[in-house]
């Protein structure tokens, strides 16, 4: 459980890091707006950890992503049923449309943008959760037979109901 002081340190540290990096890009001019992607891409979590001091960089990163994810979606979580079915269908369709064969070929930023208001780490986690529902998933490639297994088709059937 994070204390209020730790939360404030995390928020301040991330805010300072993002604004400082934007200032460096804009010749020390104060940014008017912050691009959404900058809120979760390119953050040095080790430097954030140094400012928070009481948590590791992985704790800071996970806490930040959980906060930003909720705020980006107006506190509605699309990875929880019933919205999860719709989310999974969008994820599956993206893999079909891009005809990816290997896990390393996935552009997680592009997938996150396609899914809408989802940081990379969330789209990766949702994909892995979906993949684990498929029998012998370790032996299958990303597309093809993997996406036609019953647990995946169940998502589409459940969404239609």
Automatic annotation (TrEMBL):
Domain Myb-like: 1-68
Gene3D superfamilies, per the entry: Homeodomain-like
InterPro entries: SANT/Myb (IPR001005), TTF1-like (IPR053078)
GO CC annotation, single: nucleolus
PROSITE patterns cross-referenced by the UniProt entry: MYB_LIKE (PS50090)
GO function terms (MF aspect): chromatin binding
Biological process terms in GO annotation: termination of RNA polymerase I transcription
Record's protein name: Myb-like domain-containing protein
Lineage: Eukaryota, Metazoa, Chordata, Craniata, Vertebrata
């Amino acid at each position: 459980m994070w204390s209020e002081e730790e939360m404030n340190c995390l928020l301040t540290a991330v805010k300072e890091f993002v604004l400082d990096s934007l200032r460096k890009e804009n010749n020390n001019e104060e940014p008017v707006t912050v691009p959404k992607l900058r809120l979760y891409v390119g953050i040095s979590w080790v430097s954030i950890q140094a400012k928070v001091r009481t948590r590791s960089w992985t704790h800071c990163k996970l806490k930040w992503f959980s906060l930003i994810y909720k705020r980006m979606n107006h506190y509605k979580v699309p990875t929880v049923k019933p919205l999860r079915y719709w989310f999974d269908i969008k994820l599956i369709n993206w893999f079909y449309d891009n005809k990816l064969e290997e896990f390393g070929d996935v552009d997680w930023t592009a997938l996150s943008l396609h899914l809408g208001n989802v940081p990379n780490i969330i789209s990766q986690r949702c994909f892995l959760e979906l993949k684990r529902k498929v029998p012998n998933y370790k032996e299958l490639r990303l597309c093809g037979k993997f996406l036609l297994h019953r647990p995946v088709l169940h998502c589409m059937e459940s969404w239609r109901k």
